[in-house]
Here is the input.
Amino acid sequence: MPITPRTDGKTTFEPMNATKPIPSSFAKLPKTYQALCRLHLPRTLHDESELETVTEIIDFMAGHSLNGDQADYLETLSELAEAYESANHDTLPTLPPDEFLTAHLENIGMSAAEWGKRIGIDRSTASRLLRGERKFNTSHIRKTAEVLGLEPSLLI
Here is the structure.
């Protein structure tokens, strides 16, 4: 247990898995790995509550310019969260490329005709691809991934 000296000369002990409140702004986030560990000690996650705590910290740190210690700490927490989720959460089923792309286009509000235009195919070809009547070729996959910012593996 960490030992915390008090001003009255007595010492208090804190459990190793104690979590301090997340700072109110990124500027107040500790800069050293040791200080970050005082915020939340990285350890194997055992339940959803621990995962939620780690996820809050990850979300708080993500997208900021981090120093080396902060980046290492973030990576450690991310690996712990990933390990817990892999062991305890079912993976999402993989959709066939036509079903995935149809759902994705709907989610982003893009029509089949617009998608086809952006990747250089006509409307009827786009519709046949999205209905599963025709297979995606390498060009369709590459251009779709580029235009929509997707991983090509989602379309194979």
User: Anything to note?
Assistant: The chain has two domains: 3-88, 97-155.
